[in-house]
Task: structure prediction
Amino acid sequence: MTKTRKILSMLLALALLGSLITVPALAETVELPRNETLYFAGLQWGSVNGWNPLSDDMNNALGITQNAGGSRIPMFETLYMYNMLDGSFTPLLADGDYVWNEARTEITVKIKPAAKWSDGTALTAEDVAYTFDTNVKIGNARGNSYKPFIESVVAVDPSTVVIKAKLNDAGAAVNPLQMITYLEEAYVFQKAWVQTVEARNNNDAAAIKRDPGDDVIASGPYKKYFADDQKVVFVRDDSYWGQDASMWGKLPVPKYLVHAIYADNPSGETAFKAGEVDVCQQFIANIQDLWLKDGLPISTYMDEAPWGICVNMPTAWFNMDIPALQNASLRKAIALAVDYDAIIQNAMTGQSPTFADVPRSCMNPTAGEQATFDHDAVKDLQWAGNDIDGAKKLLDDAGILDTDGDGWRELDGQKLSLNACCPNGWTDWMAAMEIVAAAGEKIGIEITTEFPEWSVYQTVVTAAKQTEYDIFMMWTDSAAPTQPWGRVRQLMSGEFNGIEGNWSGNWGHFANARIDEIIAAIPSTVDADALKALYTEAVQIYLSEVPSFSLMYRPNMFHAVNESVWTNYPDATDGRNIPPSICVDGYGIAALYALELVNP
Amino acid sequence: MKNTIRQVFHSPKFVVGFCIFMAILLTLFIYPLLNPGNPLQMIGLGTFARPGTYVSVYDGVTSPFSTFKLPQADANRLDSLLTTEDRVNMVNWFSLNGVDVAGLDITDTQAMIALWKQHFDPAIRPQGMTKAMRNYYIRLNTSILGASSADALVVSETDEATGEASEKSKITKTDYVNVADVANVVTLPLGTDNFGRDTLKQLVAACGVSILIGLIAGAVATALGLLLGLLAGYLGGLVDDIIMFFTNIFTVIPSFVLLILINYSISQDQRGAGTVALVIGLTSWVWTTRSVRSQVLSLRGRDHVNLSRLSGHSLPRIILTDILPYIASYVVMAFILQVSSGILAEAQLSLLGLGPKTTEVPTLGLMMNWAMLYSAHLNGSWWAYFPVILVIALISFSLNLMNTGLDQVFNPTLRD
Result:
């Protein structure tokens, strides 16, 4: 008996041991020579779901990202490439500049004769038209966003596309600005492949959007190689049409583009510092220390603070669904008291211009946007922050006083106690909210921070009505052809009120009839002076009503590069006019054609 | 009682632990007197200022100068300008750009700088040089040019009305200022954190709050554990079954998981330090209950208890006078351990972002959390997190020492 027991226990122990020794990974290991591979970090979180660009949830950041500030084009391509530095459009699939008709209701675009799909077939106007039709038909995010201002996309002949605007009652285009954006934002898909997908999913829109699209055909210089939970790998298509003299005249330099999948920012940052990542799109606190203190071969687009081109403004919104916050004096007082220098120096570690450098408005710090409004007319409304006395006076004058002597002010007999929220783990935003809360204490308004998880946060913030978050952070749009109109709309437009799942803007549910008129008028206003007057008035309303207040300026992409392997990345002083959009977005992809090895 | 205390203080382990703990407590009371003010005040712009003494440059310039002619002054000044690595890199730049470096002595700072000024041009982009390296040379050049060779620097004042600058004073290389004469000097023994707050001041305040959290959590856990243990052990029967049923359930659920879940469900603005302490206490009573129960079970049948019962004494009286004194030493030890684990639990929770809300009081865990969020551990800002770890370690070390000391005194099997 004891013997059998002994043997049994021995066997058990052996089995346990056996299970501990892991079977060597069966997966085929693929050699990626370091000096032929460009590594990215900070774009892709979690493994990819697939390669189908008709879908909205492939979670395939490097492959499928359509963005008004310049779509990501290593795999799928757009008609034009946007350059946020000067707002220019460089033809990619298009041949030459786009042409408006007389009435500004139609845009005509020619297709490059050289443009080909990765299967060798020609890319034609038919593909462009069918892409638009399919997006609208299956109702994906792109289709839904283009539908309100584009009536149709028509292939006149194989090399000519006409984009027709939706017309308003007066017979003018609803929104010419967004029509231009379409040219640099929308990918073009192969009609034949889309039809294959439609056929195998029986034309069912939901099924088409769920299709993983493993057999996808694209036109870009890279195609999918493999993807697992460790990384996503793209390999260069050596028969890429763009090596034709009418486009780049050569192939991009790296043979492979790889995005390793990291658990969080610190692990991405560690890999970047070790030279395992070449291009890093992550917020790195005190990034200058990487070269000043650690002496690493790391640089950013600009050699001086703020180290990047700041094109958007993370903003704190006041929730107008909270009765107390409908008081404009209270809103402005809080905004006056916040120490923005502390936010910029401590939360953003200096990676933003200050509000003394670029006084606040609805516009980002780029020269183009700053020129759209009259600076003198809004001067008296602007504030630089940390103005405790001014804020106190404003509150005193508005009758918001501490009547019961507990150190906190009351409004309508209620102690003012607000929360300030942002998603957990979004470090710079969290620190900014702490500094907002500290400002509240100085002026007698209790503000406590709250950091919910993103999954919870996003549903609350995008709800049609919510009373959970009083002050909360969201982003604003970056540079794009529709700016700064798009941002004025995003900050204040009443059209987003009452919409469930509102991802577009005005998350504080501000309502103002005049601003809605201005927002409606700007896109079709052509006269420069009239346009400037409209923008100036919009800024005046924004700064006096304070439905939200920007806390800092921020780059669209944190563009930091490690030159351990590759060099000749774009920089602000090289005169090449390549934007710092991590070598893959919009005209930023030109950087891939110019890279050089440090040790060839 | 007196005898017991004397006995306890004869245990060297207890005495050492007690001294460390008292030293920490004493610091908590004395340091705020020396350095008063709000520990959460953001005094510095910029993150993680290094530990050290900061002298106001503005006040220094207007303080009385003394003249010292130190023999090494010039050499020190130049040496702090160029490290050996810089010198080697300068020679590399010279050879990359075809400058003749024959006969150049890299320890001869004057000659190096002269040659550098003669040849360096930031616009040159040598073939194959990375941008990071080019930037390095440009910075080096700026610091070389910035290190003035002039004998005197002029401090000037700008007239606000006319915008004209007028000379105010001259500073020469031999001018020195006594730090005692400068109006504003701030010493930050542990630098600042990511918000520009004085780390030491915050650490002292946080230490107090964390100990308080530990005490509350410990008191709640011990009280609850003791009460349930006494009832279960003494009453037995159905009461025992019910209490042990719940105790066993809570024993198999890891208390930290429970802690995370409860804290997660309390919204952050309700989560003050007191609430977190309470939650920690409410999730860590289980082992105390079990131990107290087993001790009471063995006490219940003793003669003096039976005698009391026969004499018609009430239940509370029997528990208080006949049972509690026999397990008091154990309860005190359990309490000490609970305090220690309460402090650790707060630190762990805060690291996960589930600790007390952040705007009111600093805690040790929150300090660690922010240091982590701002990558203090990656960028070498040890002062933001290492002292915190040290303090946590010291507190739990001292409490555990006291506990072991007590154990040796009270536990008959360990008694010398």
User: Anything to note?
Assistant: Chain B has a mean pLDDT of 86. Chain B touches chain A at residues 40, 42, 45-48, 128, 130-133, 135-136, 138-139, 194-196, 267-269, 353, 357-360, 370, 372-375, 378-380 (CB under 8 Å). The first strand of chain B starts at residue 52 and ends at 55.
